[in-house]
Design brief:
Signal peptide: 1-29
CATH class of the largest domain: Alpha Beta
Strand content: 15-25%
CATH superfamily of the largest domain: Bordetella uptake gene, domain 1
Structural class: alpha/beta
Number of helices: 13
Region (Disordered): 30-67
Radius of gyration: 33 Å
Pfam families: TctC
Largest sheet: 6 strands, mixed
Keywords: Signal
Number of strands: 11
Family: Belongs to the UPF0065 (bug) family.
Length: 354
């Protein structure tokens, strides 16, 4: 029989062996965990690097499918016709179709909101009038603001607003009309296609600059205002050139001036208001936009694509036949114009709402 001393020594040795094995196991587990964490971090970093490269290179292969262009106006409108005229060249340049979707209603707010809510992957863009960006948030309760919710891509066209009167009116410029009515107590009747828009603002600003009193008459559109002018129910109509072009050619109407910084290239005989000493130059344009979170590289790629589209023979042929005045503004110029429009609108907001 072993004595107690031998038993105790054997038990002690066993404990030492077990403790050594345990410590070795802990160290191995700790090392394994550290290695595992290191591998996970390396994998994560590689994945992050891969994602960054994918984000930076997305414009290289874009577009890989159809691109939808939202038009917040009805079929047959100016923006709709321009968008459809872009389709052939867009397909030739990119190899992908440009799908035009009309979402009219709510003074163009419905379609604009749809763009704002779209994915920012470059496959949904929109062509929208500048007044929707600058004036709607001031005069209407809308769920979007500029520039937060939009990424400007390229300016497209100018609606070419004109100050038109009947051809037998005893004045040929807006300055002459202002002088003619300067001493009259009764205001002149000025018609525009709606209230709180650029035409209405131009009427108010012109009244301020010349001192003539006006009675603003709001119509559902420029064609209705033109008919009222032809019928003798207005003294002056401030509408788009397309609304009066047929009557101008027929000799029934004439243009007293245009609210622009320089004469329209396709209407060279019509003087600007500024040339006449009336400092009013508030124009309505339309541009292509993406949702606010669209990556900058896609914004640049789309700008390049639509420059090529607008340079194409097919689009230029359309522009000539439709008398479209291009307004190829850069994203920075678009933003500057919208901010200027906001400032002008706020300066006359009291009179616009009267």
């Amino acid at each position: 029989m072993l004595n107690k001393s031998v038993k105790w020594k054997g038990f002690t040795c066993l404990l030492i062996v077990l403790l050594a094995i345990s410590l070795a196991g802990c160290g191995s587990a700790s090392d394994n965990q550290a290695n595992s964490n290191k591998e996970a971090n390396q994998s994560s970093n590689q994945a992050g690097s891969s994602n960054d490269q994918g984000s930076e290179g997305m414009a290289d292969t874009y577009p890989e499918g159809p691109v939808t262009m939202i038009i917040p106006n009805p079929p047959g409108s100016v923006l709709d016709l321009v968008a459809r005229a872009m389709q052939p060249a867009f397909r030739e340049i990119t190899g992908q179709p440009l799908v035009v979707e009309n979402h009219p209603g709510g003074a163009a707010v419905i379609g604009t909101q749809k763009l704002v809510e779209s994915d920012s992957d470059g496959y949904t863009i929109g062509m929208i009038a500048s007044g929707v960006m600058s004036l709607r948030p001031i005069f209407m309760d809308v769920a979007f603001t500029y520039p937060d919710d939009f990424k400007p891509i390229i300016g497209v066209g100018d609606f070419e607003m004109v100050f038109a009167v009947k051809s037998d009116a005893p004045y040929n410029t807006m300055k002459e009309m202002a002088d003619h009515y300067a001493d009259l107590e009764d205001p002149i009747r000025v018609g525009t296609p709606g209230a709180n828009n650029f035409a209405h603002m131009n009427a108010v600003l012109t009244s301020q600059k010349t001192g003539i009193k006006i009675n603003h008459v709001s119509f559902d559109g420029g064609n209705e205002a033109t008919l009222a002018l032809m019928g003798g129910n207005l003294d002056l109509a401030i509408v788009n050139l397309t609304n009066v072009s047929a009557q101008l050619e027929a000799g029934n109407l004439k243009i007293l001036g245009v609210p622009a910084n320089e004469r329209y290239s396709n209407l060279p005989d019509a003087p600007t208001l500024k040339e006449q000493g009336i400092d009013v130059a508030l124009r309505s344009t339309f541009s292509i936009y993406g949702p606010g979170q669209m990556p900058a590289e896609l914004q640049t790629k789309l700008n390049e694509v639509f420059h090529q589209v607008m340079d194409s023979d097919k689009f230029q042929d359309f522009a000539t036949k439709s008398n479209l005045l291009e307004a190829r503004m850069t994203p920075e110029e678009i933003s500057a114009e919208i901010q200027s429009d906001v400032t002008n609108a706020k300066s006359v907001i009291g009179e616009l709402q009267n």
